[in-house]
Amino acid sequence: MDIKEIQNLIKFVAKSGAQEVKLEMDDFKITIVTKGSERAEATALVQQVPMAVAPPSVVESSVVVETPTESPAAAPAAEDHLITIKSPMIGTFYRKASPDKPAFVEVGDVVKPGDVLCVVEAMKLFNEIESELSGKIVKILADDATPIEFDQPLFVLDPS
User: Fold this and answer.
1) Which of 23, 68, 69, 154 has the highest local Cβ count within 10 Å?
2) What pLDDT, in 10s, does the model give residues 132-155?
3) Where are the domains of the chain?
4) Rounded Cα distance, 67 and 89, in Å
5) 80-158: CATH topology
């Protein structure tokens, strides 16, 4: 795999909304980690793995490809009290029970413990994700009907 193919893979993963993708081939491993669904930031780690028949003098090499990122100092300090609700599983994120139904929550909605925030489909099972806290939905970080990863941020909640 050449650098151009790796760059195209990074762009594809960033656009897909996936948080992390791991690809392992016979002679190398690639891990692509994206941060934030609104910005196209991605980091890829390419690691050459020595073949089983390679002599012990072969050394593993790694290449890190990064795109520019926004400095953390740019985030306002007022957002320190906000709570991020993360995905408890891998699957497909849905904001509605079905296409003809309204979304479970919208930005600005007030939720309480037990309110359904979204549905995550995993292996043809639809799992309702309920709020464990009371507060107001400030941001929805995942797009409807997109794949999500374990521990991926889905919602930002203001508990005040």
Assistant:
1) 154
2) 999 999 999 999 999 999 999 999
3) 3-69, 80-158
4) 28
5) OB fold (Dihydrolipoamide Acetyltransferase, E2P) (2.40.50)
